[in-house]
Amino acid sequence: MVRSNPIDRSIVLAMANTSPPQLDPEIADRGIDLNFGRDLVAIPGPSIMPDRVLNAMARPMPDIYSGELVETSDDIFRRLPGLARTEGHPFVIISNGHGAWQMAISNTLARGDKVLVLESGRFAIAWGELAAVSGVKMEILPGSDDRPVDPEALRARLADDPGHEIRAVLSVQTDTATSVRNDVPALRAAIDEADHPALFMVDCIASLGCEPFEMDEWGVDVTVAASQKGLMVPPGLAFLWASDKAVAAYERSDLHVGYLDWGRRLNPSQHYELYSGTPPVSHLYGLREALVMIEEEGLEARWDRHRAMAGAVWAAVDGWSTDDGIGFNISDPAARSTAVTTVRTGSIDADEIRRRCAEGAGLTLGLGIGDFAGRAFRIGHMGHLNPPMLLGTLGTVEAAIVSMGASIGTSGVAAASAALAPHLR
Ligand SMILES: *Cc1c(COP(=O)(O)O)cnc(C)c1O
């Protein structure tokens, strides 16, 4: 562990802004290590796991063919459609999100089909690349890393595909690298305006349970998600929901992968086949607890909470902002994710901010991915999160920036507290 530098009075003065700090002369000139408490992750997944979920997982193995585990599994399958707001078919995979991407492709497409990937950062492209390895052609609808997908560009491209060569449109709801949130209903409307039959597949891995999402109302054919982000369960489970149209596409698809194949999973002769084998026992206990917690809070209340907490993060970033320092990656608030925020750091070394937070304070921030490496950090604010956790994160980030002698506009912590204040009643 790296020891912090001796305290620099000018830094402390800068933080206090008005009144000079009263430093205890006994400790002022010694290097003090503050990092002795519970570590916190503020990365966009794996997110913070509730003790209730972790405790639910810490159990001996049950009978997997009958009894409580089967009831737990049935309960999970009953609850899953509501999570995506669909009557479509849910699937549970023992995998990370990449497995759900693979399941979406291999059960609905045929070799040589084309997918149109909507660029708004890293993740939709990575999904398209996985599809390409699996034998389909990928075309990218170019986008940018600081704005959502342009629905008009999608409409125009589909209108220019009279032979319907494009079989599926792949998009993310939230791109976790850029922290943009795409307007899923607007993308659906663009597909409809072009009168195009392509399947509409949406990756909600970073957003499900955090952002409003209405699979059926919004006309989404395939939704994918994973356990470790807004859903508060350790990495290892992925989810897919398929509309009737997507299930029908299974008949002509020919990229089947045995373990992920929908055939047996759609019509299991026994419980075991829902999981293509032994169920992920501990994860199922954890998932059921997480789904109960989501139900206790209420899905809409949860969306509201994420909005309020994101509002506090945005207030902090707004406060810190300077022309050549801290700033938003997504300038339009309407296009910002409420689950993760990518913070550009301008002339300030983003990795040094992260290092000081991690080594000096036990706080792990998300790193800048791809072109953002060293130029941005990310704050995950998804799932199991309350104001002390969030304000602790923001205050630590602020302290780290100030400790580097970098300038901030004003205290982001004060702004974030003010943003949350109306909600404390
Ligand atoms: C995290 C993430 C993924 C990748 O999920 P894995 O579980 O790492 O495979 C894909 N898409 C989005 C939007 C994500 O946030």
Structure description:
The protein is of the alpha/beta class. It has two domains: 9-49 and 299-423, Aspartate Aminotransferase, domain 1 (Alpha-Beta Complex); 63-295, Aspartate Aminotransferase, domain 2 (3-Layer(aba) Sandwich). 38% of the residues lie in helices and 15% in strands. The protein is built from 14 helices and 14 strands. The strands form three sheets. Strands 2-10-9-8-5-3-4 form a seven-stranded mixed beta sheet, sandwiched between helices. α6 packs parallel to α7 and α12 packs across α13. It starts with 8 loop residues before the first helix and ends in a 5-residue tail after the last helix. Residues 1-9 have low confidence and may be disordered. Residues 45, 96-98, 123, 172, 174, 176, 203, 205-206, 226 line the site of pyridoxal-5'-phosphate.
